[in-house]
Design goal:
Layout lengths: L2 E4 L6 H11 L5 E4 L11
Parallel strand pairs: 1-2
Amino acid sequence: MRYLIVSDIHSNLEALQAVLREAESQYERVICCGDLVGYGADP
């Protein structure tokens, strides 16, 4: 089983969606280590 580990998203939804689209066929699970909200794409 392959895991995608992400962190420090900081409200950059566009970047997160791009990563998840690319990873969808390659990983079975996503683990988020935190910092989901914060500055946004352009702090």
